[in-house]
Amino acid sequence: MVDGTDYLGRNQTSMDGRAMPQVTEVEMSVLAHATEDEDKVERALRNLIPPGVNVRIRHHKVRGYYKDPITRMQAQIRKIKPATTMLERTIETLSSLDQYRLLEEIEDRVDEAGNLYLRLDKQKALRGVGAIQEHDSIRLKFRFRIPHNESPVNAIQTAIESIINGQGASPESEDRQ
Q1: What is the dihedral sign for C-alpha 84, 89, 90, 92?
Q2: pTM score, two decimals?
């Protein structure tokens, strides 16, 4: 998308004419502690994944500091279209207050490599609701391809604002307008 087109060759620009960043990958992980129902924790993770996006969740058994059993669940989306759909769904399921919080904290959530880091509440995800929660949460890492000469923070903020304003970040978003 260096030239302002998406992977299908369609124009992909923001309202001010700048090329939009492209979501290339999503990494998800969550810990299920010994006191938690692993099936419910996995269901909370799956509830965040958009319908039609197939992912395999890997389970790794580990031990905590006090030798308590912990299951680490991990999943990845490595294709642009489903990764973009995942970003859109994640942003859209956040409350307007959490969307505002995300934009206010964007500099703390984006690194120089163009990765956006979010942590979402496990309990609310079990009910299909996205809510920012920093502790004992579902971790999401969105990897972006940032347009040339663009600040990762500014580019990702623009993409998130487009989703919040109903313009989307995916190629299909143009067709919906």
Answers
A1: positive
A2: 0.85
